[in-house]
Structure formats: structure tokens, C-alpha cells
Design brief:
heterodimer; A: mainly alpha; MetI-like fold; 72% helix; B: 275 residues; mainly alpha; 2 domains; globular
């Protein structure tokens, strides 16, 4: 009798704890796990209109994609843009080193906040602004370059196929530099000061301290930034979509079409869900690889001892 | 000592120059939005308007129903932030302090989601909502927030640091887990709530792809998509009004940032979450 009562209470306890998590579990099952499985399924089917003749085609969609020049081009664009975007890491490091050298004071927090400001207003308004800033005729960047070089520069940073990737990277840097600076700075400031003091006793100057103490102790921060910057670069969409005038074609001449824009095109403009799902799986595989790398480098799951 | 002072001065000057270069585009956009000369053509760069006017703002008001986009976005952002943070705290509490069968399994089940980028399940998710007849409503924007995975992780870390003794005395007084959650855990989790809310507000305000896909009715659309649609229609002309719209849509987050700068910067640095 006593035994039974005790187990009843135990069951009630179990149910109470489950009441805290059940909503989130159901949400994830329905809105993450189920659709993810559907993506895998569709990527192996010929589906143009749902409900009308879904046909199993095995790996044909993947074969089509990997031999199709437009997809391969978007793949190459995405990787090139993501790699160009990595420049925010060394730039952020330099900014962080300069800001850090000021020592903890009001000026330091002023610069920290000032450089972070662009990150907050990322979003559509920044893209609108940069369409004008990077415009070929009368844009801010060209005005600036013309002044410095003493001749008239009219590069269409976002409208010429030759320069569009550089223009897109300038926009990227403007939006992400503050983030990179902030993470670099946080990591830089967590290096124990005793090491620096010891080095100063040994006669190390500022540059040597940076080269032999700061940079080696920030390796974890660099790999974290490398992975997160790559991941957000690979799934780049919004800014390039808006620059193209709300189209996924990746104008000019398709040099700004990323994989995600390609997926969008074959999901919502010319629906071919089999093809777009296979594209989504390829994007997933690339991002997953970087995420696993991140897990390994930061030991994310190790914390759960 | 003097040498160090000079070096510090030079550093400050370099940083100031870079900061001015970075912030000039913002300033110019504001200038253009107040410049009558920028209404239909792009005037050469200047630090101040050639002809100061509010005309661009009035023109923008006629061309785009910003107030409606604002209302929609504020509604979605408020609901989503509240739901996501509240349910993240609930899960965080269960995973930090709970004792139940399958705890570890469900925790991994949730964390694993961080490895599935949203983009890779975009299409089936869209089709799912389509088959549920929920497109063109706010449900697709809201429902996913009942499981805010990063928030769950972050809340768990912080709630785990709350000493067990606090909850124990409440248990002895006969309080159940829910009582403890509301009367002890939530009040002690204010910094967690602040950080997660900030991250959620920024993410919701800037979210673009998902509302673009699920909401077709422009009267229901959120600000990011609404502004981008307006921009695409007015492309290459109406510089002034476009910049006016850009400025107006950037104001809320800018104000939020200026008010909460220290918290926001700390939140990003702690979480490592972008945007």
C-alpha cells in the first residue's frame, strides 16, 4: 500500500517536470524534425506540384544539381562571398587591439559602442542606404575614391558583374565588423593580466606581447569566429535579395546569387520542390560540417558531464 | 610615460577617423532624407542638406503605410519575445533542476536542433503551413517560438547556478515545482530574461525571409519586407523618400540600442549570438 502511494507521487512528479518541456518538445517535433525529414524525402522525389504525381527518383535531383551550371555557379558565388566575408575577423581583431590598448576607461566604452552601432541597425534600412552609398554614379564610395585618387571613379559596386562581389563584401563588412570586434575584444580582455606582467618583466614590448601572448591565447576565439562567420556567410540571403530588387536572380549577371537564393527561386518563383530540397540538403551538409567543427572546437556538448 | 600618452592620443585619433568613415553612410542617409534636392535625383555628397525640408517624409507617408507595418512588427515582436523567453525559462528550469526520466535525451533532442539551419527546412515548413491553411496569418511567424533552443541552453546554464537550497526551503513549505518556478526561479532570472529578450527583439525586428515567404497580403506584412517591397518599386528614383523610409524603419532599434547599449553589448559578447 505504502509502496503504491509512493510510486503514484513519483509519477505525478514526473508529469509535473514534463509539463515544463512538453510544449517545446511538440513544437520541435512538428516544426523542425518533421520538416527536416520531409526535406530529405523530397530531395529524392520528383515533386513539382504537391499531391500530383510525386515520383521517387533516387539521387537524380542531386545529379541534376551537381551538373547544372546555374547551381554550381550559385555554389561558387556563396563560397567566394563567404570566404571574402572572413576579412571581418582580422579587421575586427585590429580594431579590438586598438580599443583594448586604451585601457578600461570611458573612451574605450565609447568606441566599443560606437563601432557596434552599425550591427544593431542591420536590417533592411542599411541595405537601402548602401544601395545609394555604393551606387556607380554619385555614390559615396566613388566620391571618396575620386577625391583621393584625383580622377573620376564611376564603378558600379553593386551593378557591375566585375565588382559586385567586392561591393557585397563592403556591405558585409559594414554590417559585421562590430560583431567581430566585440567578440575579439571580449576574448582579448579575458587573457589573464599576470601573463602580460611576467612578459613585461622579461622586457617584452607591446608588439611582442601581442604576437607571443595575445594571439596564441585567442586561438579559440578565432576558430569560433571563423565557424560562425562561415555559417552566416553560407546562408546569406536577405541583403543580396533586396539589392537585386526583391528577386533571387542575383543580379548583376547572377554573380550575387547564393545557394539560398537558388533554393528560393526553385521553391517560390519556379516551384520544383525536388530540386530545391536537394539544394537545401547540400546547404545543410555544408553548414552541418561547420557546426560539427564548432562543436568539436568549443567542446559544446562536453559541458554536459 | 609621455611616450605612452602620445601613443594613446594617436590611437584615439586613428579610431576616431575610422569611426567617422564607418558612420558617414548613416549620416549621409539622414542628410538625404531631409534634402529637397534628393527627392528625385542624387545630389553630390554633402555634410548637410542643400535645401532642408520634410518633403521626403511627407512623400514617403503617401507612398508607404509605414504605421501599419510598424504595428504589425511590434505585435509579432512582442508576442514572440514573450513566448520564446517564457518557454525557454520553463525548459531551462526543468533541465537545470528537474529529476525525470529521459532528461538527458530530451536535452540533446533540443540542442541538436541548433545544428539544423532554418534554411534547410524552409520549403517543407512552408508546405506544412500551407496544408494547415495557415499561410497569410501570423501563426507561421509565432508558433516556432514555443521552442527557442538557444534560449533553453542559455537559461539552463544560468538556472543551474542558482543554489538548490533556495528551492529546497520552498519545497519543505509544500510548494510545487510550478510555485518554485514562478516565485523563485523567474525573479532570480532577470538578467537571463533581459539578455534573451534583447536578442529576440533584434532578431524579430530584422527577420525577413520567413515573413516574405509566409505572408502574401501586404496589409499584414512586417516592416522589413514592407520596406524592401517599397524599395523595389521605387528603385533608382525617389532617393529622398527611400532614405526617409530607411531612417524611419531604423529608429526603434537605434533608440533601443542607445538606451540599453551596455546591456546589449554585454548580451552579444556573452552569448556570441549575432544580430
Amino acid at each position: 500500500m505504502k509502496q503504491k502511494k509512493w510510486s503514484k507521487r513519483k509519477i505525478k512528479k514526473q508529469l509535473t517536470w514534463y509539463s515544463f518541456i512538453i510544449v517545446s518538445i511538440v513544437t520541435l517535433l512538428l516544426l523542425v524534425y518533421l520538416p527536416m525529414l520531409t526535406t530529405i524525402k523530397y530531395s529524392m522525389f520528383d515533386v513539382s506540384v504537391i499531391g500530383f504525381g510525386e515520383k521517387f527518383v533516387g539521387i537524380k535531383n542531386y545529379k541534376i544539381l551537381l551538373t547544372q551550371s546555374t547551381f554550381l555557379k550559385s555554389l561558387r558565388n556563396t563560397i567566394e562571398l563567404a570566404l571574402l566575408g572572413l576579412i571581418t575577423i582580422p579587421l575586427g581583431f585590429i580594431m579590438a587591439a586598438l580599443i583594448n590598448s586604451l585601457g578600461v576607461c570611458r573612451t574605450q566604452s565609447f568606441f566599443r559602442i560606437g563601432f557596434y552601432l552599425p550591427n544593431i541597425i542591420t536590417g533592411v534600412s542599411v541595405i537601402l542606404m548602401f544601395q545609394v552609398v555604393l551606387q556607380g554614379d554619385g555614390g559615396l564610395l566613388n566620391t571618396f575614391l575620386s577625391q583621393i585618387l584625383g580622377r573620376n571613379i564611376t564603378i558600379g559596386w553593386l551593378s557591375s558583374a566585375k565588382y559586385a562581389k567586392i561591393g557585397a563584401t563592403i556591405l558585409w563588412c559594414w554590417m559585421n565588423l562590430g560583431y567581430s570586434m566585440l567578440i575579439n575584444l571580449a576574448s582579448m580582455q579575458s587573457v589573464p593580466t599576470e601573463i602580460y606582467d611576467a612578459a613585461a618583466v622579461d622586457g617584452a614590448n607591446g608588439w611582442k606581447k601581442l604576437r607571443y601572448i595575445t594571439i596564441p591565447s585567442m586561438r579559440g576565439c578565432f576558430s569560433f569566429l571563423l565557424v560562425t562567420t562561415m555559417i552566416s556567410g553560407l546562408s546569406r540571403f536577405t541583403d543580396l535579395f533586396i539589392i537585386g530588387g526583391n528577386s533571387s536572380a542575383g543580379v548583376p549577371g547572377g554573380v550575387l546569387q547564393t545557394i539560398l537564393m537558388y533554393i528560393y527561386q526553385f521553391s517560390f518563383e519556379v516551384p520544383n520542390y525536388g530540386i530545391s530540397s536537394a539544394g537545401a540538403m547540400i546547404l545543410f551538409a555544408m553548414i552541418f560540417a561547420f557546426t560539427m567543427l564548432n562543436v568539436k572546437l568549443t567542446g559544446f556538448f562536453d559541458e554536459e558531464k | 610615460m609621455k611616450k605612452a600618452k602620445i601613443r594613446k592620443g594617436i590611437t584615439i585619433i586613428v579610431l576616431l577617423v575610422v569611426l567617422v568613415i564607418i558612420l558617414t553612410p548613416l549620416w549621409w542617409a539622414v542628410v538625404l532624407s531631409f534634402d529637397r534636392a534628393a527627392t528625385t535625383a542624387l545630389p553630390p555628397f554633402s555634410w548637410f542638406p542643400y535645401q532642408t525640408t520634410l518633403f521626403n517624409y511627407r512623400a514617403a507617408a503617401k507612398l508607404i503605410d509605414l504605421a501599419r507595418y510598424y504595428r504589425n512588427t511590434v505585435f509579432v515582436t512582442t508576442v514572440n519575445t514573450f513566448i520564446s523567453v517564457f518557454f525557454a525559462l520553463m525548459c531551462g528550469y526543468a533541465f537545470a533542476k528537474g529529476k525525470f526520466i529521459g532528461k538527458k535525451f530530451w536535452y540533446i533532442f533540443m540542442l541538436a536542433v541548433m545544428m539544423v539551419p532554418f534554411e534547410s527546412r524552409l520549403v517543407p515548413l512552408y508546405l506544412q503551413y500551407k496544408s494547415w491553411n495557415l499561410l497569410n496569418t501570423y501563426w507561421p511567424l509565432i508558433l516556432g517560438n514555443f521552442a527557442y533552443v538557444y534560449g533553453i541552453f542559455f537559461a539552463r546554464q544560468n538556472i543551474a547556478a542558482i543554489p538548490d537550497s533556495l528551492a529546497e526551503s520552498a519545497y519543505l513549505d509544500g510548494a510545487g515545482e510550478w510555485r518554485v518556478f514562478f516565485s523563485i526561479i523567474i525573479p532570480l532570472s532577470k538578467p537571463v530574461v533581459a539578455t534573451l529578450s534583447i536578442l529576440q527583439i533584434i532578431a524579430n525586428w530584422n527577420s525577413y525571409l520567413w515573413p516574405l515567404v509566409t505572408i502574401r497580403d501586404s496589409a499584414k506584412q512586417v516592416i522589413s519586407v514592407g520596406v524592401a517591397m517599397f524599395n523595389a518599386q521605387q528603385n533608382s528614383v525617389y532617393y529622398g523618400p527611400r532614405m526617409a523610409v530607411a531612417v524611419l524603419s531604423a529608429i526603434p532599434l537605434t533608440i533601443l540600442f542607445l538606451l540599453l547599449q551596455k546591456h546589449i553589448v554585454a548580451s552579444i559578447a556573452v552569448s556570441g549570438i549575432k544580430q
